[in-house]
Amino acid sequence: MNVVHLVRVGTIDLSLLENLQSAIPQSLNVACRIFPFHLDPSAVYHAERGQFHSSEMLQRIESLVRPGDWRLLAIADVDLYIPILKYVFGEARMGGPCAVVSTFRLRQEFYGLERDDALLNQRLLKECVHELGHTLDLRHCQDYRCVMASSHVVERIDLRQNSLCLDCRWRLESSRQLREADGTEAHHKLPSA
């Protein structure tokens, strides 16, 4: 079975990763383990924006990939951005081995509301499955309920389910079958959904 290694970034609460370790396998047919390494995000901080550049963070995470690693999913508690957007909830390289998601704007407290740990865990799971979907070459889905739907505001995340729609599952399965046909399946094995 493919393994997603969860990487702690910054001062992220370990309990969030422990929750993901059991929740992600319920949405994708993968195992999850917590990576025995902690990443300091300070090298990708940009004072002019007061934020952390997620693409630069992905590069740092990619340097941690070991032979045999399938996916590394970094979980951060810092405010992420890319230059063309004010902020991002997460980022992944299409078809790549790494993704990053931040809890910073997923927390109710960011919006001046009461803390809600259950809602934070739901949002975090959806964003993690979404970014892992991008690593599996899935693009944004037009079905607003699909975990692969685009979300530029947190309320859109709340509308999504934590699983792939039938169309995205079909795309994932078709991609797996194509890889099997051309012999690349063993190197880049995809989970069944």
Question: What can you see in these coordinates?
Answer:
- The structure is a single chain.
- This protein has helices spanning 14-27, 54-62, 117-135, 154-159, 166-182; strands spanning 3-9, 31-39, 45-46, 51-53, 71-76, 80-81, 90-92, 98-102.
- A hairpin with a 4-residue loop joins strand 3 and strand 4.
- Strands 2-1-5-8-7 form a five-stranded mixed sheet, sandwiched between helices. A three-stranded mixed sheet has the order 3-4-6.
- It is of the alpha/beta class.
- The chain is globular and about 45 Å long.
- The protein has one domain (3-182): Collagenase (Catalytic Domain) (3-Layer(aba) Sandwich), CATH 3.40.390.10.
- The longest helix has 19 residues, at 117-135.
